[in-house]
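Subject: Sanity check before I submit

Could someone independently write out the structure tokens for this chain? I want to compare against mine line by line before I put it in a report. The sequence has 129 residues.
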Amino acid sequence: MNFQVTVLKILVSYPAGFAVMADLKRDMAILATSGREWAERTKRLAARVPDLDIFSQGLIERMNGGWRITDKGRAVLDVMEARHPAPETATIPHHATSPQPLPVVALPGRRDRLQRRQAAREKARAKVS
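---
Independent answer below. Compare away.
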């Protein structure tokens, strides 16, 4: 599993692209144990941007006990996930403009994972309060 791609994918799934560390860790654990499919997918995405470094390239920012994906991070994720034929590797745009929100594409099992993730968040929040 590629840690950096996974972080980008998790953050983009949250409202405003922000998640507290507890949510990130939980989602990371879920994905890490979800099977080879996820690991293979993140490796394929990472291969499209081999010099990926989410911290030094400003793709995420640390704030308020969590991480937030930046517009540049969304643009890089868009490059990695491009459906059209692309070069085997891509470079990170030096100046990413604010991209339009990407349409959510329902993949088999995605809805189930999102529902399980939401239920786990609600359960964790209920324990805290």
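---
OP: Matches mine. For the report I'm noting this point. The mean pLDDT is 79.
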